[in-house]
Specification:
Structural class: alpha+beta
Number of domains: 1
Distance between the termini: 50 Å
CATH topology: Nuclear Transport Factor 2, Chain: A
Largest sheet: 6 strands, mixed
Number of strands: 6
CATH architecture: Roll
Radius of gyration: 16 Å
Shape: globular
Length: 144
């Protein structure tokens, strides 16, 4: 059973982000699903779609590589690497054409064969810095 839940979580990233299938949001997300991203919560497919549209209008060649998964009961944790090209101004920044990367971790609760709730954290600051051309090293590697 946990293999099915892990596969559903992986399928979410494959269908929604890698293939860009907007209709997969309705197929895979429960109507009452809440996605927590930092201090923001999005409820259900209808609130998630504008988030999806904004990213799609800002980036092309979106690809999420799942690096690791852990499953415990109804919960699936995924560690992932995101690569994409900044080709639109949907984030309020002029398109730079830059290839950017970000890492993140998502936790998905699977309920009734669909996404029931989710929590994610990803390096959005690092993404913006790449777009703006900031050269930064991780704080633990910074010169003293």
């Amino acid at each position: 059973m946990s293999e099915e839940k892990k596969n559903l979580a992986i399928r979410w990233f494959e269908e929604v982000w890698n293939k860009g299938r907007r209709e997969a949001i309705d197929e895979l997300m429960d109507a009452d699903c809440v996605i927590h991203d930092g201090g923001v919560s999005i409820q259900g497919p209808e609130q998630f779609k504008p988030y999806f549209d904004r990213l799609q209008s800002s980036f092309s060649d979106i690809h999420v590589e799942i690096l690791q998964t852990l499953c415990d009961g109804d919960m699936v944790c995924l560690r992932w690497l995101l690569t994409m090209r900044h080709t639109g101004d949907g984030l309020g920044l002029p398109a730079s054409g830059k290839q950017v990367t970000a890492t993140g971790i998502g936790i998905i609760e699977v309920s009734g064969g669909r996404l029931g709730e989710g929590w994610q954290n990803w390096d959005m600051l690092g993404l913006i810095e790449q777009i703006q051309g900031a050269d930064r090293a991780p704080i633990y590697m910074a010169a003293k």
